[in-house]
Every structure is written in C-alpha cells, then in structure tokens.
Amino acid sequence: MSMQANTYQLFSDGILSIWKNQGISYIKVEELSTIEGITFFELIPDAELLDGGEVDTLYAIGSEDVDDMLLFSKNVRFVVHKIYLEED
Questions:
Q1: Do the beta carbons of residue 42 and residue 32 sit within 8 Å?
Q2: Spatial distance between the Cα atoms of 31 and 77, rounded to a whole number of angstroms
Q3: Alpha helices in 1-88, H assignment, sequence order
Q4: Is the pLDDT assigned to residue 49 strictly greater than 80?
Q5: Does residue 7 carry a pLDDT above 80?
Q6: Beta-ladder partners of 77
Q7: pTM for the structure as a whole
Q8: What does the pLDDT average to over 19-47?
Q9: Could you tell me if 68 and 48 are in contact, meaning their C-beta atoms sit under 8 angstroms apart?
Q10: Does residue 20 sit in helix, strand or coil?
C-alpha cells in the first residue's frame, strides 16, 4: 500500500473521537496489502456490508477491539482514507 499523496492517515485517538462525535456506530475493517512484513487494514466508518463473498469484519465503535487498533503493532497498521476524515 502506498501512502503517496497522503491519501491514508494512521488511525488515531483524534479520528476515533471525531467519529464518535459524528455518531458513527461501527467500523468495517478491510485488508489492503502487506508491504515489507507490515499488513495494512483500512477502517471504514458505518460502511454497508456487501454480499460479495468477501469476509468483512465489523466492530462497534466503543468496543475494546477498536481501542486495540490504536495500539502500536510491529506488523499491523490501521489506516483511514482521507474521504472518511472530512467533517460534515
């Protein structure tokens, strides 16, 4: 996954706080790619589940699993596309 043109930002406490304030109820997690031993996952707020045969994982915004995504991991990064960071 390329971080070119800053299209993705690492998931942070600030992003989580904004999403909670916007009333986001759950986060969908999709694997993007693995580069040099680091697996990147995209977080998508309140995304629709598609019945396309892929395995989508949803987490409630206030769950411990979402809190764990904020912790540093040597082999995993959770990122958010800039389109999900725009405030209404």
A1: yes
A2: 10
A3: 13-21, 64-68
A4: no
A5: yes
A6: 40
A7: 0.82
A8: 93
A9: no
A10: helix
